[in-house]
Amino acid sequence: MKIGLGFLAALLVFAVYACGTTSRTDAKSQPHDTIEPLKPLTGDEIRYLAFQVFEGAPNPEIPFDNALAYTPKAAIAKMVHDIVTTIGETGGPKTRLAFMLGPIGFDHTDAQARQIIDDGFAIALAENIAVGFHLDDAMFWSKRSDLIANPQNVEWTDFDGTPATGLKLDWAHTPPRMVFNAPEIHAEVTRRARDVIGSHIAAHVENLRSLGKVDLFAGVIAGWETHMGQDTGADDRVGFHALANRGFGPGKPPADVIGEIASIVNEFINLWTDGLAAGGLDGAHIYTHVAFLPRARFNEMHTPPGLTYETVLDVAPSSQRPATAFTTIGRPGFSTYPVAGVFDQIQRELERHNTPWWASVEGTNIIPGNPPGSSGMTMENYLAKSFNNGAALVTLFGWGIGGDFMPDNPFRTTTQGAKALATYRAFLKQ
């Protein structure tokens, strides 16, 4: 497996939706969202402050690339212990410190997926903090030769049936996009979500309940910026195989190609959340994960005349319209790097869907591609944009990332800065 040193450099441009690949500004703009302090928490809902701990490589400080492997429990436990001892607070009546373990992807065997879950709950009980799990729903599946060798499971770049070659991402190398509505993919997602992941997590949750510690489960994130995306070879959108499965073709294209593809993506996300629930998980502990190019950010970009926001929104790598995050079962989750307008747009979308509880499932107080401090916010201001506005879970990226190879990684220094640590401690006393 290719060790992810390229991933470390790519953290500077992580989450493509933040800066865009169609065009870029001079990266000096500040968020349009208002600055606010954290407010005291109200209500009975426990709020989880989680830190992403990466599965997929031998060392969680050096994230995966190309394919996922099992990360030894001892390496995970070491990083989690560092989080606990460095912060020094694990939660009060309304809060819990948590770690989010993942991605758990198709590259992991059933046995490895269950082992990751076992490791997570064991570490949570040993450290007396909460654990959650972050699933890769579709990107890393190169080890599944039983699936990827079947042409019916591989996407096309056009209605002529040209096979995709690789998913276009700025932070990792992945195989071609799988066909979200292929019968074999549909069956395997259902089996994995229900019989391997959902049921195994549910059994551990019941054990926590018997111990009077059910609050040590922070939830499961069903996806990793779920989107259709672009192909590396064609440098253009994919999804035509899934469209063909819906009865479309060269002589019968959809009236709205991107809208139809967004519908396919949402159907796929629902497949995962439904499967996890069928395995025994409460929908209140299931979150989705969608990233999107904010409209305010698009308005700042130097785009060609006539190129609309709607055209770019679902076509840019890693971006998918925010409405796809809403499912029949579960809660919506979003990447929330503090670029212009992202929080305001999330709030408007939540209001259109009856203002459910939601999650910031990926982010930290940095604008990708910009130096630390470029957001114009403190970590308290950043967390307030979520916790003050109905988020039950915030997952921060960056803890320990880079190790000795890149000790000054901006994601790491932002997430582990002295003022950020003080903010976490104050929040976790509530």
Q: Which secondary-structure class do the elements indicate?
A: alpha/beta
CATH level-four homologous superfamily name: Glycosidases
Largest sheet: 8 strands, parallel
Q: How far is the N terminus from the C terminus?
A: 43 Å
Radius of gyration: 20 Å
Strand order of the largest sheet: 5-4-3-2-1-8-7-6
Mean pLDDT: 91
Given this structure, which CATH class is correct? Alpha Beta
The helix-strand sequence is HHEHEHEHHEHHEHHEHEHEHH
Instruction: Tell me what the CATH architecture is.
Output: Alpha-Beta Barrel
CATH topology: TIM Barrel
Contiguous low-pLDDT stretches (5 residues minimum) are: 1-31
What is the multimeric organization of the chains shown? single chain
Total helix count? Answer: 14
Number of domains: 1
Approximate shape: globular
Descriptive report:
With 430 residues, this protein is α/β, with parallel strands linked by helices. It has a single domain, classed as Glycosidases (TIM Barrel). 35% of the residues lie in helices and 11% in strands. It is built from 14 helices and 8 strands. The chain has an 8-stranded parallel β-sheet. Helix 3 runs parallel beside helix 4. The N and C termini lie far apart (43 Å). The N terminus is likely disordered.
Output the keywords.
single chain, 430 residues, alpha/beta, TIM Barrel, 8-stranded parallel β-sheet, 35% helix, globular
